Amino acid sequence: MEWLSGLLKKDTLRRILVFVLLGLVLYFVRSMIDLILLTFIFAFLVTRLENVILKRIRMPRKLIVIVLYVAVAAFLYIAIVHYLPILIHQISQLVTLLVKMYNHPGDNQIVIWIVEWLKQSNIEKYLQSGVEFLIASLSGIGSLGLSFFMALILSLFFSLEKERVTQFSARFLTSKVGFIFQDVAYFGRKFVSTFGVVLEAQLLIALVNTLITTAVLYLMHFPQLLSLSIMVFILGMIPVAGVIISCIPLSIIAYSIGGFTDVFYILLTVVVVHAIETYILNPKLMSSKTDLPVFYTFIVLIFSEQFFGVWGLIVGIPIFVFLLDVLDVRSTSEIPRKNFFGGRKKKKNGDS
């Protein structure tokens, strides 16, 4: 057993083994990944809102949690009863409009060239996979709704009994396999401080982008405004690529409404929204470790979509940032001034 004692003393190797063990556990419960992710997201967001409210209002924490979940329940009731039928009707009209534009582009040579390019490019593959995912989601709406409901219930119980849950979980740290749970707690803290924060930032960025885009679409008298706003918000959760993808259907609808003038306004809006996201929102909401080059962003999105499906487009970047934090990949200001191939950078005038 000496080799085991030696292994336990090596933090890096032990944590690698624990990390692999956690990966295997998640692989075996992959059918419940929706429930796990939704529960974490709800509990994290409620905890953040709770802390924000407690800084401004002196009231019992559990009362804040109850009020928040009552508000969520009221919002879901209004959305399902009043807005869901409108949304379904608008989506059907929007799909009919896009299919009509795609199949009958008209006599304009530029539009014909764009449609032909879309048919020949790989974007049709992504659209097809998105439609297949939508059909699968609609066919399994019962299980999806059950996962959503169970995630709300679990996050509610966690938020109400957060102190007891924390105290009870701390007992595992002193158990016979406490070294495993100590490393699990280490990864848990890293996960919350990176994955949760980045996902929260993505939500806020998507919300701001949706508000700006929806205001422009309203001024341009776009039809099916509710369904388009939801589409922009969902695609806004995908870093960088989401803004570009949303430009395609919006441009097609803009051309059908007002020709190239409206298309120009849509493209200008997308440029402005992307500039706000890149130069204002990202630096304020994201830490320096999440300031990824666009090349890395697209590579992560491509691979995460292959491994996690549509979920990967949303959680791919937060998971990658979590791995960077675990591997202790430091920001540019913290690393020695060397180039990628190991050589030192030439000193500039004034460098010491």
Automatic annotation (TrEMBL):
The membrane topology of this protein is: Multi-pass membrane protein
Listed A to Z, the keywords are:
Membrane, Transmembrane, Transmembrane helix
Q: What is the lineage of its organism?
A: Bacteria, Bacillati, Bacillota, Bacilli, Bacillales
Where, subcellularly, is it found? Answer: Membrane
- Protein name stated in the entry: Membrane protein
Any one biological process term the GO annotation gives: transmembrane transport
Which PANTHER family does the protein's record reference? Answer: TRANSMEMBRANE PROTEIN, TRANSPORT PROTEIN YDBI-RELATED
What's a single GO CC term here? membrane
The UniProt transmembrane annotation reads: 12-29, 66-88, 133-158, 201-220, 232-257, 263-282, 294-324
Q: Give the chief site where it resides.
A: membrane
Membership in a protein family? Belongs to the autoinducer-2 exporter (AI-2E) (TC 2.A.86) family.
Matching InterPro entries, A to Z? AI-2E-like
- Looking at the keywords, is Transcription regulation present? no
Please give the organism.
Listeria kieliensis
